[in-house]
Backbone:
């Protein structure tokens, strides 16, 4: 054994074998130091994400999860305490509100009381039952304007009858307790004698409208005018016993009645009537004639003469007669018949 260690080669070999572990360990130690340095400079994505998340949730900590400012003592900050009272204080305030009396608020030592406090409600007093409230009446629909006629008479006049609808027209007039004047043709009176008799017995005025209702025949001469009126007059007298002198010439007196014709009428004792309101029911033959009457009445509101409305015994006139009657009634007009004592109204006067 001693001879073995005397050999130089052997000793060198043994030294090398002994140094290899030392050199290898040194290399491993240097590598470990370098790896730690790199891990500190380049953190892993998972660790970085966790650090950033915690740093966002806890503003007082930096990404390394170290406090960036000194940590205040345990308890809420001064600013938070100023904005909102403590939980215990809130409970005490709420109890004070329900009990109706102020309760002292406990304040922790070193903590300033809240700036704003909720005012306590007054103590509840026993309430006596309120008296019953009478039911409120809802306002009704505003009434239509009335009294613009101021009780002024209005004279409804019907031409060209009697007709098949004469009875229904009389029914409408009876409903409104209205009296009217009927200027009738001789032939129609002979066809509807019952209507003529009912007009007379109901208190309406009977008038004459001639026989032919023809411009060429009626206005041929003064004698033709008087002749037709005399014939119709006799028919009325035969049916009712009434000798009427109220007349209306076909299509109105203007321009067909000449001064000579008018003089003949006066000499024979007749009273010739025209109108002041032409309903134009003969032209419209619908509800428009009611609007036409209303429009003309408005224009004559301040006039002083009689209001005489021209109508005709026609089915179309009957259909809308109730609407006209309702309007006149609401305007406080009174329905009167013409009579022989009145001064007639005539076109062109």
Residues:
């Amino acid at each position: 054994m001693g001879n073995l260690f005397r050999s130089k080669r052997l000793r060198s070999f043994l030294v090398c074998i002994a140094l290899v572990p030392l050199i290898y360990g040194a290399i491993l130690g240097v590598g470990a130091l370098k790896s730690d340095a790199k891990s500190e400079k380049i953190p892993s994505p998972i660790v970085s994400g966790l650090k950033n998340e915690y740093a966002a949730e806890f503003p007082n900590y930096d990404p390394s999860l170290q406090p960036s400012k000194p940590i205040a003592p345990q308890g809420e900050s001064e600013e938070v305490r100023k904005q909102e009272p403590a939980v215990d204080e809130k409970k005490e305030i709420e109890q004070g509100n329900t009990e109706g009396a102020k309760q002292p608020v406990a304040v922790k030592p070193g903590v300033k009381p809240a700036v704003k406090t909720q005012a306590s409600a007054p103590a509840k007093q026993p309430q006596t039952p309120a008296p019953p409230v009478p039911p409120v009446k809802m306002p009704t629909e505003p009434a239509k304007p009335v009294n613009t006629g101021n009780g002024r008479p209005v004279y409804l006049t019907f031409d060209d009858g009697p007709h098949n609808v004469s009875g229904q027209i009389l029914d409408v007039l009876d409903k409104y307790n209205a009296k009217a004047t009927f200027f009738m043709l001789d032939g129609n009176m002979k066809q509807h004698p019952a209507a003529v008799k009912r007009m007379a017995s109901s208190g309406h005025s009977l008038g004459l409208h001639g026989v032919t209702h023809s411009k060429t025949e009626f206005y041929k001469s003064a004698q033709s005018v008087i002749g037709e009126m005399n014939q119709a007059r006799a028919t009325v007298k035969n049916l009712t016993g009434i000798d009427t002198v109220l007349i209306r010439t076909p299509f109105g007196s203007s321009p067909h009645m000449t001064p000579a014709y008018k003089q003949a009428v006066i000499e024979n004792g007749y009273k010739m009537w025209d109108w002041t309101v032409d309903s134009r029911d003969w032209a419209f033959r619908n509800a428009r004639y009611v609007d036409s009457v209303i429009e003309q009445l408005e224009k004559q509101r301040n006039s002083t003469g009689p209001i005489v409305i021209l109508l005709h015994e026609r089915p179309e006139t009957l259909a809308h007669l109730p609407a006209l009657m309702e309007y006149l009634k609401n305007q406080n007009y009174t329905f009167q018949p013409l009579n022989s004592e009145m001064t007639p109204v005539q076109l062109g006067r």
